[in-house]
Design goal:
0% strand; 8 helices; 181 residues; mainly alpha
Length: 181
């Protein structure tokens, strides 16, 4: 299914060289904070092609990290604006890609009000049936799965566990029990 959105490089908002630098920053450590990605599969070219939303969200996060304690760069605001614009389109439309959920979780994890996008990501995951992946993986009597089917279930389970954990953490923050969200 072709993607109807364009990423920030296609729009001329970020150069390819800067995008590659930011992608490297993200996969040098940021992705471990919320372990949604498989660096061997979620490559620069692959993710850019599959999901402009997720790609833009990764660049926004990495740009924020690159700024450190300093003010966010223009690149951060451009990538964030593009990712948030695509996110808004998911509120009333169907979700068809797991990368959409990954992007929403990234927006939640590096947001000041993460509980709201986290809740939306959880419902997106339910819509795609990601909550069923763990049970299917654990089913020892299941028919032998292809490598692609196994990968789909592992990725689905990873996303489900991350969003469930993150949403759970945000509930504690909203109720004043913790400060991790």
């Amino acid at each position: 299914m072709p993607n109807p959105f364009r990423h920030v490089i296609e729009k001329g908002l970020v150069s390819d060289a800067e995008a590659r630098e930011l992608y490297h920053i993200f996969f040098s450590g940021c992705h471990l904070f919320v372990p949604l990605f498989d660096p061997s599969y979620d490559t620069y070219e692959g993710l850019k092609e599959r999901s402009p939303w997720c790609f833009d969200a990764i660049l926004a996060v990495a740009s924020k990290i690159r700024a450190g304690n300093g003010p966010p760069s223009v690149t951060f605001y451009r990538c964030l604006e593009e990712a948030q614009e695509i996110a808004r389109s998911t509120l009333f439309g169907p979700v068809v890609r797991k990368e959409a959920i990954q992007a929403m979780i990234l927006l939640a994890a590096w947001s000041t009000s993460g509980w709201l996008p986290s809740g939306h990501a959880l419902r997106m995951a339910l819509h795609l049936g990601l909550h069923l992946a763990l049970e299917k993986l654990a089913d020892s009597g299941a028919k032998r799965r292809s490598e692609e089917e196994e990968r789909h279930l592992v990725v689905s389970a990873r996303i489900w566990l991350c969003i469930y954990w993150f949403d759970h953490q945000c509930v504690y923050v909203v109720h004043g029990i913790s400060t991790s969200c």
